[in-house]
Design a protein that fits this description.
Glutaredoxin, 100 residues, alpha/beta
């Protein structure tokens, strides 16, 4: 399964139950391009256990404002719709795995 692409319309429902790892990114962002393959790998490894998703910050400005995204990439871990951890900048895959 590939990573879900979330919008303002489907965001809350997508993260409402269980754990969700959401990558806030932009196509022009170099560090985001470094994190993207890690997010894709995690979506395969945790399929059926964790919702792994992406939010395009250029297109979903309401979500950017809602979560106070100031730098990208920002990866937020949610549990049952509540933020439990946040990672700003490039992090190794093992950091995300340890949280999941």
């Amino acid at each position: 399964m590939s990573t879900q692409h979330l919008t303002t319309e489907n965001f809350d429902k997508a993260i409402s139950t269980g754990k969700s790892l959401v990558d806030f990114w932009a196509s022009w962002c170099g560090p985001c391009k470094m994190v993207s393959p890690i997010i894709e790998e995690l979506s395969v490894e945790y399929e059926g256990k964790v919702t792994v998703a992406k939010v395009n910050t250029d297109e979903e400005t309401d979500l950017v404002m809602r979560f106070g995204i100031q730098g990208i990439p920002t990866v937020i871990l949610f549990e049952n719709g509540v933020e439990i951890n946040r990672f700003v900048g490039v992090r190794p895959k093992e950091i995300y795995q340890a949280e999941l």
